[in-house]
């Protein structure tokens, strides 16, 4: 067998570390939303934050996450997952700040990215939430 493929063979340890990495990304994004202000843009977590939290190297990260989306795509998915929840309580422009979209065009960029991911604008998503019956 080719040595290249042996190096990236999935092991239980790598799968466990992959779950830890994904949980760390989710936790950092969750903290970003909890600690953010609805008037100031949040600071998005960087790969170095995750590496420091788990005390792993960039090479280890690349090895373990070789078959996954990039860090930035994983972070983006987590941000929009939290954004959907935040839209239940906050206005779109406030959620865009919580999601780290800065500047004058931040809400517009947030809306475009949200629509690209979910095929619905945040405003329409918010309206659908308000129209749906409360589920217990």
Q: Separation of termini?
A: 54 Å
- CATH fold label: Arc Repressor Mutant, subunit A
Based on CA atoms alone, the radius of gyration comes out at 18 Å
- Total strand segments: 0
Portion of residues within helices: 55-70%
- Poorly predicted parts: 1-7
Report the CATH superfamily. Homeodomain-like
How many structural units, i.e. domains?
1
One letter per element, helices H and strands E, the order comes to HHHHHHHH
Give me the secondary-structure category.
mainly alpha
Mean pLDDT rating:
86
- Based on CA inertia axes, which overall geometry fits? elongated
Strand content: under 5%
Q: Number of helical segments? A: 8
Give the oligomer, counting copies of the same chain as homo and different chains as hetero: single chain
The CATH C-level class name: Mainly Alpha
Specify the biggest β-sheet.
none
Mind telling me which CATH architecture this is? Orthogonal Bundle
